[in-house]
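Methods — Computational structure assignment.
A single polypeptide chain was analysed. Its primary sequence is given first, followed by the predicted tertiary structure written as structure tokens.
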Amino acid sequence: MAEHATNPLDPNELFKHVQDSDELHVPRFIAPNSNGHIELPQPFKLEKPLFSMHTGNALIDNTIEPLDFKFTKYMAIELVAAILIAVLFVGLARALKGGAIARGRIRNMLEAILFYFRDNVARPCIGGHDADKFVPFLWTIFLFILACNLFGMVPWLGSPTASLATTGAMALVTFFTVMASAVSKLGPIGYVKSFVPHMDLSPGLKVLLVPMIFVIEVFGTFVKHGVLAVRLLANMMGGHVVLAVIVAFIEASAQSMWFWGVMPTSIIGATALSLLELLVAFLQAYIFTFLSALFIGMAVHPH
């Protein structure tokens, strides 16, 4: 059992690299007294969770963690990401106040990102005069997801978007934004009617088809927002797990004659995969934001 627990290629060990935790795992030279483990303060943690999964499936039970209000590593990273975004873009807003021109490479880059999402994502996907109202929401979604993804590039931190709690919360925010915007634009009755397109059918066929189409469309609305969470989760978790496997080959071969062949190959492979993960970090943030804008546009302009 001891050998199995310390096997670097053991799935339980590999998934620890992408799971949330109530402690930070840092390089040992940063916290030598605790062997690289820094426990996070827990001012609100409950002794007995309000909710926990007991399906018998270890993957499901570990993915959906107990609701006990503990402060975790991913929460700390999200807090830092939010503060960094606020500092950067509040400073940019003050610099641009009164129609001033952005100065410096960083502020010009940040301004270009904002304009791109306004002109090439929000307005084409949402259209009309409604788009600009949702631009701040789309900016926030993209920047927060991107920041969380980029923190995952630091080996000993991890990405909060590799957690269902984070991606599910982001998908729920988009879902409620879509619902609220559609009801505000069309009214409750109008929004319900928008699920069924106008069809020139006989009364008999309408009685048969309209309820079926309505149920399918409502179900599809929930599914497509759920897919938002699952797509982001799978891409971020999958990439980090593969990276952990490649690096684990080094430790697994440490006592064998193959070490000097495996070690440089693993380093080169991990470097190449890290560059791919950097691309994925930007790409998945963009896809989530683009689909959110598309769903809003479909809801407020159903026809």
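Note: The radius of gyration is 23 Å.
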